Amino acid sequence: MPASAPYPHHELYETCKPDISNVEYLFDHEHHTFFGKRVAITLFDQPEYAYVYVDKTQADNLIRNWREDHWEEWTGLTYSQKEWYQVMHGFFVLIGNREAPPKEALRDYRNRVRTESYLHDTRAYLKTLPPEQWNKETVKGKIFHDVIETIMYRAFEKSVAPANMTMSELNANLGGWGCLRKAADTLLELDTPGFRAEEALYRLGYVIPGRIDSEDLRQAIFAGIPMSKIPVTQRKKRYTAKESRALSPEAQREIQEMENRNLLIKNAENTMKKAVAKAEKQFLKAEEKARAARDKALKTAQERIAKLRDSYDRKEVAAKDCDKVMAEMADMTDAARKACEKKLEMAKEILAKAKREALAEYEQTVKAAGPQPN
Question: Which of 314, 342, 299, 308 lies closest to 327, judged by CA?
Fold first, then answer.
């Protein structure tokens, strides 16, 4: 919904603002945490539902970066303005005439966007074809292909959801895993998967077979049999033999603990990098400010000395008075240089301290996370 009249964009924000921090309205979708609330409204004299969302993950990340770069502007905002700035980068509203839970409405909307993207790609594809290939069969074939692809995509998306994975992650992890078919044999030899592919399959609850019959796979797919139930041949002895069943609860728990530990350490490392970057940024500002103050003092001294020489040349001041002023200017420039050096030393100490504290916090987090599970 656009943030313009006659759409009640601001009114919906004010209505939902007290509940944005209420955990009862939070849900997770595609690794992001959302606030979602359904509000009944009247739009163009028609009853509608407004689905008000805040992508809290995106909003928190963007406002954090903005606040670090615009701290003075942030401190000048009112409390109400700060509340809005905290959520504005993730605030959006969907309008619909169907009543549904906010999470379901968002999922359907995202899927619709993907479908429209497929249709857009279809039109783009048809435009690239030579005019003589623009016929009924070409158009129907492309549309049919995209419909099947969309159905398969949504089916895969639902199947990987319990493992807390997105399709893009799954494609990235399994992209390098291949298989080889020997001549006319229906038996497929599967490559040894890499670490990322093996971890992804474990998270999905699948074991890694050494080979699989393509005919069994085809029949199982058409029959709707889950992948974990398809008969497979164990991997060759030189690899670790694994049974074709889902992991035990203990193994799944160990994998989850390893993932949580790695995520904790990664977040700690990112926090350390951000703290160091912030400290270095503050050091550069302090250095720039100290040098600017020194240069201003030197410039003032040079201007006064130039005026003094001009007055001396016109014999408007005595040599004694000129020497006194020159001594004062020398003291002022020397004091400016010393003040600049002192401020730079203090800024360096603050930077070094911030780096030590960030490193100590990271090491403490790694220590608290415990050793790497076997």
Answer: 308
Query: Do 355 and 262 belong to one domain?
Result: yes
Of the candidate ranges 62-66, 156-160, 289-293, the one whose mean pLDDT is the lowest? 156-160
Q: Do both 18 and 90 map to the same domain?
A: yes
> What's the angle, vertex CA 233, arms to CA 229 and CA 237, rounded to 5?
135
- Contacts within 8 Å (CB) and 24+ apart, 287-291: 287/344, 287/347, 289/343, 290/339, 290/340, 290/343, 290/344, 290/347, 291/340
What is the arrangement of strands in the sheet containing 46-55, beginning at the earlier edge strand? 26-29, 32-43, 46-55, 91-96
For 159-214, the pLDDT digits (tens) are 676 666 667 777 777 776 777 666 555 566 666 667 777 777 777 766 666 666 66
Radius of gyration for the alpha carbons in the chain, expressed in angstroms and rounded? 33
How far from 349 is each of 3, 55, 141, 355, 359, CA to CA, in Å? 48, 39, 69, 10, 15
Give the structural domain span for 207. 171-247
And the tokens for 302? 């040079």
Cβ neighbours, 10 Å, residue 99: 9
